[in-house]
Specification:
By secondary structure, the protein is of the alpha/beta class. The chain is built from 16 helices and 13 strands. Strand 4 (109-112), helix 5 and strand 5 (141-144) form a beta-alpha-beta unit. Helix 1 packs across helix 3.
Length: 431
Amino acid sequence: IYGLGYVGLTLGLIMAETGFSVTGVERDKFKAKRIKNKKTPFFETGIKNYLEDNIGNNLKIRTSISNVNGDIHIISVGTPVDLKTKKINFKPIKNVCNTISKILKKNDIVILRSTVEIGTTRNIVLPILKKSGLNPGSDFYLSFCPERTIEGQALRELKTLPQIVGGYCPTSAEISSRVFGEYTPTIVNVDSLEGAELCKLMDNTYRDVIFSYSNQISFLAEKLNLNLPELIDKINLSYNRNFIPKPSPGVGGPCLTKDPYILESTFKKFKLKPLITKSARDINNYSISNLHLRLKQYLKLNKLKPNKVKIFLSGFAFKGNPATSDIRGSTAIDFLKKLQDGSIKKIYGHDFLLTNQEISKLNVNPVTFENGLKNADVIIIFNNHKSYLEFNVKKLLLKSNKPCLFFDSWQIFKESNLQRLPGITYNGIGY
């Protein structure tokens, strides 16, 4: 397995647990050392036990391909997208493919798992692998089998979610199906590399689109002085035909923030306009700007000077449920950058899974949740980690400055319990 991030490491652990002899190749020496020492490089439910049981046994860690002699080569490196130019960086995949081409032997199979532009497996991966001198479909085999898990419960979902398989040829699909069929009960063969690539992009882009719908309506609800989350609860009640999601402070994470751009690139190659997906991305990106605008309006209305106020941000991980420590694509980080570009000076931060050192690297003063609320002028909760409910927020808010804005992005706390507190303004997305 090439690349031991959220995708590669969890897969490696499950395959090792199943009985495969796995070698994980990770070029980041610091990360590789942590994993080799059975230390978790990121938060993932249950990962500690898997590391204890499998590292040094069925799962061995390497920083290069020396002494690697695999029959199944699984590529799980990242495919970064430049959010300014929207161009995809294929360099990580090309580097791995060049590496594999040097050690590829007869009857091996290469499985691409990274999220890619449609046509990547056939037009980029395959030509590089052919440098080995072997012929695809007879000497070696090739498939695209996308990762579909969610961070925080990946180890469980790998063993329960259907695995999509797209093969270069029927034999490639059959071998891949047998590999993944060792640990997951359902295999879905989509009959082509391109079909499997599109499946992955459709999954994540669909989620971005449905979330953008609620976020778009939230802008209108705020102008109409309506409580959109409350209305959505009532709309969804016993009405199974639709399920409208709650509005959010944008859409975060390393996948949903970039995969629509990867899909968009294929649309453009065929001179098609991705109107819905492009608009969805624009709406979700604007959600952060809208929140920043609302903050500035609140400060102006209450005659609070930006350079004097204490702002407390809680929840830097891009999501709280299932919990993760991943801050890639985090809406809290995007909002923080807007604050730091302005005249806000006193910014304090907290996250249930990030260390103080990690928060300090964001140029934020790390504090406990309780101390964050103390003497705060503005409090913004960005994710929905379950640990928030362990606090008596009503009591803690008595120690905040007055007036104080308590912005509950995910409606974790009951508005009725907080709206009558003297000097406290309870608010949220779509309020």
